[in-house]
Amino acid sequence: MRLISICPSNTELCVFLGIENQLIAVDDFSDWPASIMNLPRLGPDLSIDMDLTESLKPDLVLASLSVPGMEKNIEELQKRNIPHVILNPQSLADISEDLLKIGRLLGIERTAAERIRVYQSLINSIKEISKTITERPSLYWEWWPKPIFTPGKINWLTEISRLAGAENVFQDVELASVQTSEADVAERNPDVICLAWVGVPLKKVQPGIVKKRPGWENLKAVKNNHILVLEEPLYCRPSPRLLNGLINLAKTLHPEAYRDIHSDGLWL
To answer: Which PANTHER family match (predicted)?
Structure first.
């Protein structure tokens, strides 16, 4: 089939299923793996060039609602009658469902089921270790610095925090994404700050900004210099690569407990 992905996480789902050779174009932000870097680009994921998308005559477009603003892509796909599927996972289990959905649409259900088995097996192994962790640090995740956005309860990072032997300090908020304030974060006083600014390269993330916020010098995370600058693609894209980020985080927080966990076999 002639596939188009207009979201980085969807591109990574295709790679996980071993069907990246069926991709004929992707959005500008799809940057992994190297094998897809020479594909035609359709623009940023919030402003896809639909004229070009339509001209490529795809059999299926893998669309997304994972970022606010993507609705207009869906509207255009519907208006132009371009075949598409909409993915919007909020949990690790939702990612499994999306893999199976793609497998069914492409007639590769058996392959999808096997890849899901590998994915779920690794999650189960991590889960068993997580159950043994008694001292669980509180994590404050920051997706964007101004205004401040952080994941709430209905998001995979709350699940990943728990699996990594920690707790998301905003897990009590019944939202996927929370616009919060400096005062609210200060009141919650996290043990660790995790910076994963969406779309910002690792080298451009500035932990110094966090340290200068009013009252934040008294946060446990700042006092103890427990500020992690994390690779945004491994934490902010709902694809199986989240497990690579999870393992990295778990080994940072609890190196002894998770030392024997590896992602070998996760990727084709």
So the answer is: MOLYBDATE-BINDING PROTEIN MOLA, VITAMIN B12-BINDING PROTEIN
Last residue of a domain, one of 49, 69, 88: 88
Give the chain's domain count. Answer: 2
Instruction: Quote the pLDDT of residue 66.
Output: 87
pTM (2 d.p.): 0.94
Burial of 149 per CB tally in 10 Å (0-12, 13-18, 19+): middle
Nearest to 231 by CA among 253, 193, 200, 267: 200
The residue assigned the tokens 């699996």 is 163
Other CB atoms within a 10 A radius of the CB of residue 191 amount to 19
Residue 130 covered by a domain: no
Q: Report whether pLDDT(262) > 90.
A: no
In CATH, what number is assigned to the domain containing residue 64? 3.40.50.1980
Q: Pairing relation of β-strands 144-145 and 148-151?
A: antiparallel
Among 239, 5, 36, 3, smallest CA distance to 105 is for 3
Residue 68: which domain range? Answer: 3-88
